[in-house]
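Protocol step 4 of 5: obtain the predicted structure for the target chain.
Materials: sequence only (see below). No template structures provided, no constraints applied. The aim of this step is simply to have a reference model before the mutagenesis design in step 5. Sequence pasted as it appears in the construct record:
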Amino acid sequence: MKKTTLLSLLFCVLYSCNKSIEIGTPIAYLQLEQTTLEVADVATGLDIPWDVDASIPDELWFTEQKGLVYKLNLKTGEQKLMLQLEDVLFRKSYGLLGMTVHPKHNYLFIHYTYQANEGELQQSVNSRVVRYDIEGDKLSNRLVLLDNIPGNSYHNGSRLVISPDDKLIFSMGDAGRANETQNDDILVGKIMRLNLDGSIPEDNPIAGSPIWSRGHRNPQGLTFGRNNMLYSSEHGPLSDDELNLIERNANYGWPDIHGFIDRTAEIAYNETHNTTEPLMAWTPTIAVAGTGYYDQSAIPEWQNSLIVANMKGRALRVLNLSENGREITAEHIYFQKYFGRLRDVSIAANGDIYVTTTNTDWHPRFQPWMYDGLPSGPDRILRLRAIDKSNKVDTLPVLTEDDKAMDLMSENWTNAVGEEEFAGGQKLYTQNCLACHNPEGTGAPGLYPPLAKTSWVTGDKSRLIRVLLLGLSEPIEVNGETYNQEMPSYAHLSNQQIAEVLTYIRNSFGNQADAVIEGEVFVERQSLDK
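Step 4 output (structure tokens):
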């Protein structure tokens, strides 16, 4: 054989023909007390990757909130779009929200929101849990396991996980119905347990009901640890994010208990309701999200620990557990502000850890004052794995544990109206709205609806924005009267201009409401452009 042929063959074996070369571009290192971790990009250019699952060896399944499911081959780097939902309702904090795969049965499970009414400006939100069969590079045999779950524009959860006894565990937020989290007839504020075909396990606490626990605000992480212990991370209000140990038929107290039972009213409530305290709580909230359990020997410092992604806290937290799994013995903070907002965590059988960023979602647009130095550009999936120190690239940064939690800015959702913004909105109102709705916003009886002192203006901002983007060609009812005049679309105005004119309308003519900001218009316009 010629020398050139031998060289060509060698090159092929080592590089282009070698299907076992794993993907991942190293971008940094994390130095623990003993172990060096390589941080690598395994997927980039993503748009709000909500969920990631490394349960199947050599594969990484992940979602984008707008309704896409992908499978990434970790050996070849081939990325395959497996599912594109046609009926997903994607906006703000709803869309495709939960996903898990079952490696033994080749199932994919998802949870997503959809519009329950037809074409109305004020959309009614529901959600459903669906199962697909995985057949190579295709999904088939769609089966709806749970449907018509009440939803909202916020607090729809959710996470899905397969239990060691082969059940599907599903978390659902309170969907803005905080007072119903204690009502076992409504599936909000609950963690649920189903058979893989959607039927109800016979050993569930309530016969014929999927409910496993209740009293949850918005659980964003689920994972199993040693001895089949189920852990959940949960968003609190302005105080008391929680890390909970989920037990059969337990009540976690929302909305009457926030975090630990340490206030007078909480103590009194617990005396009659027998609620369960979290293992840990954070105030101010750090927006705890996806959670994984680590027990591999590759990273001895993290054995028997929960790994929790933080969005507002912009960090990865490692919570060491006691031997019995019922206490958190230490908290460690990593990557604080370095990669931005982190949403989900999945841990492969070989000890590799996958983490998704979420810097392109609605929060940075709605709360820009909270996110100094937020990484720009699309989202990514990071891989953490232990390496030999001798394999480090000297030019890459070496990160270490953060000494303390960073100070968090206040979550000011009032969106105060500035003078310049108000003046700009007044000018736009004069140019575009005054002729029909009059200088005082009183409208014209029987023709044009009033803008003054009406909940149609001060209420649902999403509906109001959609009116300007879509126009009106159907009757609407305002202050008890029906109006049926056509209104043109103002979609030609910029997001900032629409925000300014609506802010002016919501704070004039006797109305007093918070501002509309550019990010809110962006989200509505994006949903219409699907």
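Step 4 remarks: The chain has nine helices and 28 strands. Confidence is low (pLDDT under 50) at residues 1-21.
Proceed to step 5.
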